[in-house]
Amino acid sequence: VEKRLAERRRAAEAQVREGDAELLADVHRMQQAAGDTSAMELPELTPGDPGLAEAVLGWAAVARSTAREQLTIAHCARATAASAQAAAERVLDDVRETARLQRRFAQARERAARLEERAEAHEEERARMERARKAEAVAPALQLRDEAETEHREASADEARARAALPHSHADAGAAGLATAARKAAEELGGLESARRAERRLTELVAERAELDHEERSDEDVLQDAEGWLAEWETTRAALQSRIEAAQEAATRAEQLAVQRGPAEKRLGAARRRDQLGRGTEEAQARVLRLAERAVEARDHWLDLKEQRLKGIAAELAAGLVDGEPCAVCGGTEHPAPAQKVAGHVDRETEERALAAYQRADEERTEAERRLGVVRQALAAASAEAGDTPTDRLADEMAELERAYAEARRGASGLHLAQEELRSAERERERRMAAQQEAVVRAASRNTRRDALERERGALEGELAQARGDAESVAARAEQLERLAGLLTEAADAARAADDTAQRLKDADARLADAAFRAGFDTPQAAAAALLDDDAHRDLQRRLDAWQSEEAAVRAVLAEADTATAAQQPPADLATAERDAEAASRQLQDAVSAWDAAERRRTELDRLSARATASVRRLAPLREEYDRVARMAGLTAGTAADNERRMRLEAYVLAARLEQVAAAATVRLQRMSSGRYTLVHSDDRVGRGARSGLGLHVVDAWTGRERDTATLSGGETFFASLALALGLADVVTDEAGGVRLDTLFIDEGFGSLDDQTLDEVLDVLDSLRERDRSVGIVSHVADLRRRIHAQLEVVKGRSGSTVRQRGR
């Protein structure tokens, strides 16, 4: 119960500390959010301290109140700064407008002065624009004259180029003479069409003759190749037939060797199994020996443990005794003094584990022997199949057999290829003989065709010699005539064009002179000089329009009433107004920033305060549970202030048992002390903070006073301890349902007793021998040797100690 309460107290304390740690973390966050504005110091508390929740909530309330107050102050400051900034902006706008009007008036005066300076140049530009407008009536005639002059110049140049390309015989001819010569050249060109067809046919004949010569050379190559190949035919056929016969013999040999491979492989495999099983037999024999030794060791260990268990069987039987139930040995329902287990006691579980280990070892040995028999049988079978021939020798024979078999298979594999090559060679022989016959037939036909081509070629060459004249060919002659006709035609056209453009130029000059006179110009050159191109006209018009616009704008500005009024005022101080407005804007920004910070601070503190309040409410049941469990744990552990005697719950429970033991021990002690001493339980509180509740005092009947057991003498302490042991045995016997202790051993302590006390103690021990109970005394006191007749004496010797029995 104490342990469980302590665990519950630690668990509850851990939960409370964890919650307090989170609460303190929220407090630190609130302190960071409050910054330097909080006038209240953070309480110095740690997780688990009493009053932490109340202190935290109080500090949070003060921080929230301070934050709200500062938010109100910041709000008022922001409103004041906004009003000041608006007033400064209005003043700045008025100053800017005044400055703008003053600049506008000054600029208008400057523009008027510049217009006055440029007045003379403006009049000259206006007069030039007037002359340009008059010259525009002459512009079409000027353009027509320029176009006529350009056409005449180009036509004259074309005529000169065309005449330069003509032969000298036609260089001075007029347009009509050039046209007549061109018609004659075209007529002669038409008469050469028949000669052109004959020339193309002659070209075809030459090409066909060349093709016949090429075919003749190809057929000669075919005939030579066929004759050479057919001359080697018998030799090739004999070689292929020999390859076929050799491959057939190799196939027969491979079939014979394949029959021998199976038995040889089986015998080699049996020899390898024989060697492997021989090694496995040795390993199996060694394993059987190891497992047999291990089984013997396990059996000896089991027998040793069994012997030890038989020696301590009384203690094992006593452990199973239950109050009120009969003993498995004697049948008694009272068990006053059950046997106790000694050091090194072997229980049934230990013995059974040893037995199981022995059985497993024996099973492993049996399994190993069985496997050894199986391996030996397999070894005998493999030896019978393989014989006594060494494995290496069988492997060499098998390798030689495989080599011969592989060689025979390689030789047999060429059978199909050799047969196919023979059939292919026969087909090639037939093809070459047919090609030889076809080449002979083509040669006879080619000779006939060659004779016909030669006759036709002679007739065409005579006709072409007459048609081409001095030219290399008819085509060259036709090209000469075609070029001459083209040049003559081009020169005639160019001469006619030059005559036409000369007449048009003369007409354009007359019309231009008439148009210039009607426009008021003395000469056409004067009208041309007054004309303006598009860019110059646009530029001049733009300058004239700009002058008029600028003059009108200046007059309008100077006529404005507000501008004139502003010009009469003192110069506007814009820099001062801007500085004042900028300062007011900065003050407003600072006020807004302060208000934002105060609002964020207030919001964050409200959020964290609500979170802390929720944490306190959540921790309240845990804290109450912790306080209740802590009080109970302290009370049961004897550390609470309510536990005046500092008595633990365990001690409180044992105190009741100790009273029973003291009462039972008093019965023995009064007899041993001749009625002088009585043992009583004491729950007095001891000094120096020690635990209380399990103390013992003796009541001395001679003095009538109660005193501590530490005041007893050595002999008195011995028989008091003996009485307590006997009393404890009686109480345990009663609690265990009457299980009796049949054997009791008492070690030393008798040497400190006087004779009378020793007699009384021995009388008490004799009374314990009721109902065949055995009492053993271990002592070196000589007087006990005379009083106790049944003895086991331990005698020391050089070879060790021996035990001998004396008396009965």
UniProtKB/TrEMBL annotation:
Q: What name goes with this protein? A: Nuclease SbcCD subunit C
Basic and acidic residues: which segments have biased composition?
144-162
- For this UniProt record, give its keywords in alphabetical order, as a comma-separated list: Coiled coil
Q: Lineage of this protein's species? A: Bacteria, Bacillati, Actinomycetota, Actinomycetes, Kitasatosporales
Spell out the Pfam families in the cross-references: SbcC_Walker_B (PF13558)
Cited InterPro entries: P-loop_NTPase (IPR027417)
* Species of provenance: Streptomyces ipomoeae 91-03
The annotated region (Disordered) lies at 137-179
UniProt lists the family membership as follows:
Belongs to the SMC family. SbcC subfamily.
PANTHER family from the UniProt entry: ABC TRANSPORTER ABCH.3
Coiled-coil zones = 195-257, 351-484
Subunit structure of this entry? Heterodimer of SbcC and SbcD.
Q: Which residues cross the membrane?
A: none
